[in-house]
Design a protein that fits this description.
Layout (H helix, E strand, L loop, with lengths): L2 H20 L4 H21 L10 H13 L6 H14 L2 H11 L3
Helix pairs in contact: 1-2, 1-5, 2-4
Length: 106
């Protein structure tokens, strides 16, 4: 994943945090979700060929869940990822990402 593609994921997490604040999530919840989303994005970088958020499919999310459960991690991580995708569906984030993807030479 190149630097421009990493910036796209950083944009996602920044907008996700803004959205959580606007929805009055507690600071502790925001911190927890940010950690979980960061770990998910790191897993995406290490284990998939995805180069932008629009390429993440349900199947990839399932693979991530299997991965964390096989590591014995039973935590909020699946909820964090689910909330991230709920956020992406309730905003114009898809349009923002499409514009960003087409404007970046990858």
């Amino acid at each position: 994943m190149n630097e421009a593609q990493k910036q796209q994921f950083q944009l996602l997490t920044a907008k996700f945090e803004e959205w959580m604040k606007a929805k009055n999530f507690s600071p502790r919840t925001i911190d927890t979700y940010n950690r979980g989303v960061k770990q998910f994005i790191e897993w995406i970088e290490e284990n998939t060929e995805c180069t932008n958020i629009l390429e993440i499919t349900y199947s990839i999310v399932q693979q991530y869940q299997i991965s964390i459960y096989s590591e014995g991690v039973l935590s909020q991580k699946p909820r964090n990822v689910r909330t991230l995708f709920e956020f992406s569906q309730t905003t114009d984030f898809d349009k923002d990402i499409e514009n960003l993807v087409t404007s970046i030479d990858v």
